[in-house]
Specification:
Helix content is 38%, strand content 14%. The chain is an alpha/beta fold. Strands 1, 2, 5, 6, 7, 8, 9, 10 and 11 form a nine-stranded mixed β-sheet that branches. A two-stranded antiparallel ribbon has the order 3-4. Helix 1 packs antiparallel against helix 3 and helix 1 crosses helix 12.
Amino acid sequence: MTGLRLPQRFPKYAKPVALVLQGGGALGSYQGGVYEALAGSEYLPDWVAGISIGAINAALIAGNVPERRVERLRQFWEEITPPFWPGLSSLDLGDAGRQAGALRALLFGTPGFFRPQDAAAWLRLPPPSSVYDTGPLRSTLERLIDFDRINARTVRFSVGAVNVRTGNFAYFDNAQVPIRVEHVMASGALPISFPPVEIDGEFYWDGGLVSNTPLQYVLDSTPRVSRLSFQVDLFPARGPVPSTIQEAQEREKDIRYSSRTRAATDGFATRHDICHLIDLLWEKLPPEVRALDEAQALHGYGCRTSMDIVELIYRTDVAQGQSKDYEFSRATMEARWSQGRADALATLRAAPWLAPTPSEVGVRTFDVLRPGNMPTVSVP
């Protein structure tokens, strides 16, 4: 599948564009569809950042020439989501098919991604620290990603992981360090399913253990510049009250992961609006007040940049169960990809960020497709 050209050309946009990709395992094919829509628009990102599966998708984007990015994303997702029967790649078996896909991943892994540890490994001392081996993922990433291109910095690239020994969160950024396959794998090394990944003598686990979105890292980077950020979330914060145990398990997972993303977004918006107001207030202070040490110190926190955050959230009316993030069936992948593409196209056509930004507003957030279909705007 090639990148889609939108039926209309969107107005030129002055701010640089970031693509921020949340973790979520098998749900990540939604992000592939989102990028396909962006690839055919005027909003190509100059910075891609991700956590977990978002890190893998980000690497597939940054590690390929623009005209091949959608192709490589699609190739990855087709390789790791085998059809149940040859020739029936898009057969949708409904809930039974989803359950079968999740069970297959649990028992046998998924091609090109992970496989169960060899039985003999459990007889050795010490035994493995993970249920699965991610050797297949290493081979897949090395084949589909040009790490020399990532390190050429044509696009900025950042992924997050957690140091197992210290518990500290770390970002690996091609503006600071040469990126290797280990950095991408570390961001997606979810315990106890996957083993930690060693990088320069330290071991790392999935960044989603601490933060499931790299949004704050991107927006807080200095020197700070006004930016449009597409944040692609895989777990919805809002949802119905569950009536079964299965629905409760799915809802619990949605809340657990979306709350971290929401907290990061809300926290940044509040802090940045305060910085914005500090700078506006400074202009109204008389010279004698500006000269005060306290005023000088406060002014150091001021900032006049404006940030637009576009939220694209994977929502579905169909209950998928708590196994949805490890359900790697082809039909489900296709559906999620198509929805991501459709959601992004609808958002691009609405383009609420093109409205002028009021001078007193530091951060605007837009969720075009949320229930009610009205963009939200964060104001001081």
